[in-house]
Design goal:
Length: 198
Amino acid sequence: MSSYQKATFLLSVANLTQLPPDEGTEIAFIGRSNAGKSSVINTLTHNKNLARVSKTPGRTQFINLFTLDKTKRLADLPGYGYARVPAEVREQWTDRMEAYFQERECLKGLILVMDIRHPLQEFDQNILEGSSQCELPVHILLNKADKLTPNQIRQTEQLVKKGLEPYGKLVSFQTFSALKKDGVKKLEHVLDQWFSIK
Ligand code: GDP
């Protein structure tokens, strides 16, 4: 059993001030809604209930925290969907996320989930800008890889590689399928590395 399968729900917070003490190591998951972030968390933790918490009505804008052990946590960050979200709401959300990236000392990395068929949307670019400003490492999951042919995957990987050039070494990516459970080992390896940073 991997340590990620020991994840248990800790708490949901509406504001950054309600987060647990800034100690140990936190790794956060973020993604445009419907990219499959909840499915990724389920696949990683083998626990269907965890990410379900984040989908509870009224809690979709909360940060949900899961404990792996005394010093290690996963944070499920709120996202938003499509362009019809008012600009004001988008800006507020971006400010909140940037504050979390900047102020949270125990945050060692960000897993950014994208639908491989729609990579590097404006949402994702905003996240990449915000995280690169505070030198926060980001690992991108190109999820739903089962929806594309190997050839389409290769083409997308090339496009994404090119699109990520401006961000340098702090940003990496891999293909993933939460549905087929493909890419879990690689993801665990990245998380293990981040959790071992002192
Ligand atoms: P979230 O809004 O980002 O948390 O997305 P969900 O995890 O709720 O997934 C959104 C939709 O995409 C659901 O219908 C999932 O079943 C589907 N989905 C998620 N991951 C995958 C995947 O790897 N492959 C396929 N084919 N569908 C997926």
